[in-house]
């Protein structure tokens, strides 16, 4: 399976529409790949909190339209990264005002096959953590020959989420992010840790550039189920293309069956 991670630069000098068209062109250039991945909140920037409400889109808004077409033009499975989503109210099309950090996944015919709302929101008592709602559902996506498990940026710090994805059959963990440069070591370390402990591929796609005064780490990374780094981007805008063999997941899990030794339901300590 050939995967292309589009580490797009998110800088304030560029309009959202220009970046959307540029992202679509980059997706089209990946025709021949099987899976293409864009990062987290690449329209606004993950740290541009004041833009979330202003630039929020319905699920079927302009990014959906543009990315559905780009996926079908290129004939690729597309994880289109995430958008600030303004959720529709239960009963109809009117927006209810709730924002989510929502990832969109498309099939090679441009059909929306999965939606993932980020579960762990970043910012502690400000930013995304207070401006956006919490997703509640794990999401896996069946591709020919493998199963993707999806997570977003800060989720990377929460191993139990990934165990849930593995229990649901995930073999390739896809993680769009807008990770800051000052915590780049955590990014690389956590990506490798999630790959080793889950004996799964990790495809982690970050942004480049600087927005809201936060320089981005870049350094998108692809790690195999043994923890080896197959490819790593530099800090700038770049497309990282790598061939991954999903059969390696079953091989690794068979040869070193640590996942079978999990002990669940441990007793809490007695005081
Ligand atoms: N957008 C994010 O989730 C940022 C996460 C982050 O900066 C960190 O975990 O560190």
TrEMBL record:
Going by the entry's taxonomy, the superkingdom of the source organism is recorded as: Bacteria
InterPro entries from the xrefs? C-N_Hydrolase, C-N_Hydrolase_sf, UPF0012_CS
SUPFAM superfamilies, per database record: Carbon-nitrogen hydrolase (SSF56317)
PROSITE patterns according to UniProt? CN_HYDROLASE, UPF0012
Could you tell me which residue ranges the CN hydrolase domain spans?
1-246
Q: Which UniProt keywords apply?
A: Hydrolase
Any single GO molecular-function term of the entry would be: hydrolase activity
The UniProt family comment states: Belongs to the carbon-nitrogen hydrolase superfamily. NIT1/NIT2 family.
Could you tell me which PANTHER family the record lists for this protein? DEAMINATED GLUTATHIONE AMIDASE (PTHR23088:SF27), NITRILASE-RELATED (PTHR23088)
Q: What is this protein called?
A: Carbon-nitrogen family hydrolase
Species this chain originates from: Streptomyces pluripotens
